[in-house]
């Protein structure tokens, strides 16, 4: 962050990790480690023009603008997004998650290359608040998607590396707008199946794909409870070699389990299949699952309904996040928070009394 | 509500539905339909003294005070709760949910009578915001718990019938404090498995019991997704007559399904069994599931950890609810909300721009 602010003060603009440039990238997470180059500043109109022309370098800079923490960047970013809005919405947005080790990167590479081969334009974005805690950003390591990253029709962008989950997710959602305006018809949003990022992802994609591994409970410890119920489709990856039998069994187990769940709002019964991203087996089968879902939900009207709900969700989310932030980030409130937490912990004050005392104090400021 | 306010203006105090009085109750949901009788007003100290003595009538009036919407009632209610706090916490809190038709009332009656027979003192509370929408309150109809309601050691209280889910849940949680101070060692919190009430319930009970029926998907349409993953235990009810085989099958299916889920934070593997509340079969088996869980989590420290987390959760919940309420209930904000929703719906403005415009307006007030 320090480093970043330093650059900003020098009014240099950080150019995100554009793995399409073909320039070797450090495997690092932290975008602030990348070299900072001076660039011409564009007007909102110039950004929009470039994006609509599909200029990848301008798109990349616009995404950087969206990710910027500077207020002056915020204003122009919003203007660019507003102007791009009319040209968006005509894509398929797929959320992809799974525990580390499930083979997300290999899968995204395999499916991505397949789709680009069919003439699709694919943008791969990520939600990974953990990256700011230098835990290792997903998509951060270009070498993990060697083939896809040099594919002309693919645009890969690591997770914005700043702020709360809400903030990171908001930036990802705004980047979707820019990518769609730039003509990308397929959007992947990747996240790691270990946190609340999935809920955020679920609120911005059309189809939620869970990449699973063969095996039961023990192997799944990593994944957060509740995520399986968000999935519109599950694929058991690494179904190859002497793992095939285990994978087929897992497929049957998941199918039975999903039958015990109520049908999702979409009316679509979540599908389960197997694939091998590494051996490139049944990758098209997974994609068929997605396109079947899209056709199904467009037919019953759920597709548009969900997108409208998502827009409203984000409006309310943003409002709620703002309201909380201004309360919890208030220094005077923070000074008193711990004391009340202790009282509540020791059963010396009810949660409600403590809350009301803090609120009364906040309102008195 | 109208009716209610009328009474309040007459400064009469509504006496909740105390099914222990043995007085015939209307099967109705709506407490405001019950006759309103004048009562002596107690001081906080008198309430506390009565509660600690286990005076059921005073307990009932104290709960009514907690449920009251009147500010002047709020202050004294909080004082009573604070004074009761030191005498609370030594109970087992069990959340019970299931879709309408799963047989919750019959089950609660059977288990309740069993526990009271063993000398336990049982308080049955409910979270059911739908009651205010005159959808039919759970526990509202005394005739559904004939035997239990006349049991000396049982205290049954229908869902408070006012306000948001957060408000209703808060009152239920505060009522738990009063009931524990009154010497009730076992608390049931009932809710219907159709809404977010389960999340609220989950945040105030030690053990989450899901009452399920034999059968797959179709029969479970009623239950909300995600609820099954909250369960510490599932019992397949109505395992009697020619339903036994189906129930046994369902038990096996649920057990297999649960194995696919990661272990909950408690380290406890959710149990599944069968019972028949109607035929009174294996009701004690269900209770053993609960007591085993309590022993297990008290041994590994999760029991206390969870209760402390719940207290904090409610402190933050209350703060967040207040912050939202003051924004969304602001008339000026409300006037503008719909217009921005439309803009967002028609893709004419991003969710984020709309949110910020509303917030700027709110802050300018």
UniProtKB/TrEMBL annotation, chains A, B:
Its EC number is 3.6.5.-. It is an enzyme of class 3 (hydrolase). Transmembrane segments: none annotated. It comes from the Bacteria. Keywords: Hydrolase. Pfam families: MeaB. Signal peptide: none annotated. One of its GO terms (cellular component) is cytoplasm. GO terms for molecular function: GTP binding; GTPase activity. Belongs to the SIMIBI class G3E GTPase family. ArgK/MeaB subfamily. This is Methylmalonyl Co-A mutase-associated GTPase MeaB. It comes from Candidatus Aphodosoma intestinipullorum.
